[in-house]
Backbone:
């Protein structure tokens, strides 16, 4: 039987001469940052699609390692219908360095730098989950959603602006798109500045609307 022994890129570089140290968060050691956040919602949250819960703000340069979703209540029926999307959205703040043109915008799923709004909600990124079910009849659910949708281990080694801005899929893609939402400085593609939020969006209405909590936890390295 054939055997296989493979090393990661970081290990190959550490075994090289001279030794090549990986960038923190990209196979190299780095300090892990943690944000734990939550919103307590009224019965209105589950009454319509595209209601939102915005939380866990992190820098656009963050390399996200883990994301958890917490839900309690929200749909008190034993046959629940409320489901949630989990997007990454630009911050809605006018004071944290996020570009005015990008505030509250939702990067699209193509990862080319194109954005959408909550009103149109056209091809939102749904990076950490699409139509996720909430906890049953008021019970508490704390779920690792890091790789529930299109986010992958390889993307976790890239800054989030690059993942959503085009370079996560193809450097050429963001250049062809005119830079997307990234900046170009002296011919180099750079971070746009500012912050991202985890944006939880109601995908489908509740069977029985109820008060409840949505929480998120994000681990990242810069």
Residues:
């Amino acid at each position: 039987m054939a055997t296989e022994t493979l090393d990661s890129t970081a290990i190959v570089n550490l075994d090289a001469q001279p030794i090549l140290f990986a960038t923190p968060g990209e196979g190299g050691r780095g300090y892990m940052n943690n944000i734990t956040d939550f919103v307590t919602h009224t019965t209105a949250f589950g009454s319509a699609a595209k209601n939102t819960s915005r939380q866990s703000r992190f820098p656009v340069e963050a390399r996200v390692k883990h994301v958890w979703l917490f839900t309690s209540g929200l749909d008190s029926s034993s046959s629940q219908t409320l489901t949630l999307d989990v997007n990454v959205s630009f911050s809605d703040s006018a004071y944290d360095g996020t570009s005015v043109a990008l505030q509250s915008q939702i990067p699209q799923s193509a990862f080319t730098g194109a954005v959408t709004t909550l009103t149109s909600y056209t091809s939102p990124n749904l990076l950490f989950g699409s139509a996720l079910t909430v906890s049953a009849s008021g019970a508490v659910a704390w779920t690792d959603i890091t790789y529930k949708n299109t986010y992958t281990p390889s993307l976790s080694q890239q800054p989030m602006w690059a993942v959503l801005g085009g370079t996560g899929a193809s450097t050429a893609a963001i250049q062809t798109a005119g830079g997307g939402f990234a900046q170009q400085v002296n011919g180099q593609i750079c971070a746009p500045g500012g912050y991202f939020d985890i944006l939880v969006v109601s995908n489908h209405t509740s069977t029985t609307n109820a008060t409840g909590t949505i929480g998120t936890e994000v681990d990242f390295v810069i």
Q: What stands out?
A: The chain has one domain: 31-221.
